[in-house]
Design brief:
The protein is α/β, with parallel strands linked by helices. 52% of the residues lie in helices and 10% in strands.
Length: 456
């Protein structure tokens, strides 16, 4: 067989230039929305707004209805990494004592907290440094917080993250923590969205959200806008359903959109305001996919393999990875991070009384499940999208993302799917080794070819 030669240099073998991923154009509108959101946040202090720093679940509809501005720490860390501007923040964090084995999201935004505090005290002079261009002062532009809220499921580091930020700001600011129980799946009736454990955990978290609202009312002096929350969740539910409809369209062969397109669409559904603009964005994404299907336009010009991606993205490498897989005619169609989080069960949302449905979505963090529920979701997607193999991104500084991956890989192999692992990270490019990804990807694709030959 000649599969080894083909995948070692697919461009030379096929006599064509290496293909590039045909990314959706509509996702660019999301980038503009995200930039506008951050630019607005940077001026929050000038406008006299109350600023909340938070991490974890998408509690922004609650913050929106409380009349405050919000900063999602992970999102800002991802933005810096995607722009390759994470260096100053990570250096500040490491100089303070946060080693590079700490979650790189946390290390980045804790560095931002240090720089923000120094900026407020007039101690940041990064624009004068010849080694740090003026654009890199972005890491110091966050407005200092008035309040902290922690809302992290499935990750012990995340649950301590805001406590560390609280200490960095001298333990002087109000701090509220929402506790999410892990869904262990130990009871006999346990399952995805079902069972006594699920019902009890849902009610427990809903009660804490009511306490959070009371906390915000007390600390801000603002009466909570319940009608505003209902309106926000109305838009989020519509946007989430459009997103699901668009994902469903990607069952087509060849697929009209890939995992990397859905990565680009995370920010809007994760932390932007619930409004008509959010609905319009996902309507635009769905419409472009429908047009591609009607016109026979695919995400890859010569789709040959359909893969799933398990693990958080490294935001430094999105474009590089998209093109790397495209060079091998491998369409990454779905992933746990994109397809099983971010308001992905919109039927749970009751627009008239949204708190319980919100609590349930927060519990559905893709790292908060038992192995049984995790496998149920991921392997269901593999069947839905006709997946040949799973690429496991073993995220170096995110243990919660990698927990369960070996178990999941074994279960996938038992169903006849091929698997591969490569090590990387969410916001620290130094953990990637391009050669390792290349060799392991080629080996998996060769095995898929052999498997197909045997079946035929």
């Amino acid at each position: 067989m000649s599969v080894t030669t083909e995948h070692a240099n697919p461009a030379a073998t096929a006599g064509r230039p290496a293909p590039r991923a045909n990314r959706l154009v509509s996702t660019r509108a999301g980038g503009a929305m995200v930039k506008a959101y951050w630019d607005n946040l940077f001026t929050a202090r000038d406008r006299g707004a109350t600023v909340v720093w938070y991490n974890g679940a998408a509690i922004n509809p609650i913050l929106q209805a409380a009349g405050v501005e919000w900063c999602h720490g992970e999102a800002f860390g991802a933005r810096l990494a995607a722009m390759h501007l994470e260096g100053p923040a990570q250096q500040a964090g490491e100089a303070y004592g946060y080693i590079n084995e700490l979650c790189s999201y946390a290390r980045t935004t804790l560095g931002c907290a240090l720089l923000t505090k120094k900026e407020a005290l007039g101690q940041v002079e990064m624009d004068q440094s010849p080694d740090m261009p003026s654009k890199e002062v972005l890491a110091a532009r966050l407005p200092p917080p008035d309040l902290f809220v922690n809302a992290y499921a499935g990750c012990s580091t995340g649950q301590q993250w805001d406590e560390v930020s609280y200490r960095l700001f001298d333990k002087e600011l109000p701090f509220f923590k929402v506790s999410y129980p892990l869904l262990w799946g130990n009871k006999s009736d346990a399952g995805y969205l079902r069972g006594e454990e699920w019902d009890n955990a849902s009610k427990y978290v809903a009660g804490q959200l009511h306490d959070l609202i009371a906390f915000l009312e007390h600390k801000t002096g603002n009466k909570f806008d319940w009608e505003g929350l209902r309106e926000s969740m109305h838009y989020i539910k519509r946007a989430a359903q459009l997103r699901l409809d668009a994902l469903e369209l990607c069952k087509a062969r060849p697929t009209p959109a890939v995992f990397w397109d859905w990565v680009a669409s995370i920010a809007p559904i994760n932390f932007l305001p619930g409004n008509q603009a959010l609905v319009d964005y996902f309507q635009g994404v769905k419409t472009e996919i429908e047009e591609r299907l009607a016109e026979g336009v695919s995400a890859l010009p010569n789709e040959r393999y359909r893969l799933a991606f398990d693990g958080i993205m490294n935001w430094n490498k999105v474009g590089w990875l998209a093109n790397k897989f495209a060079e091998h005619d491998a369409a990454v169609v779905c992933g746990r991070y994109t397809h099983n989080s971010f308001w992905h069960e919109p039927h749970l949302i009751d627009e008239d009384d949204p708190i319980l449905g919100m609590a349930q979505h927060y519990l559905l963090c893709p790292f908060n499940h038992s192995a049984q529920n995790l496998a149920e979701q991921v392997l269901r997607d593999c069947e839905t999208y006709g997946i040949d193999g799973i690429v496991f991104h073993a995220t170096r500084t995110c243990r919660s993302a990698t927990n369960g991956q070996l178990v999941l890989a074994k279960m996938a192999q038992q169903r006849g799917m091929q698997t591969m692992f490569f090590e990387g990270d969410v916001a620290d490019e130094s953990f990637y080794k391009d050669e390792i990804l290349q060799s392991r990807l080629e080996a998996m694709l060769e095995t898929i070819d052999v498997q197909r030959t045997r079946v035929s």
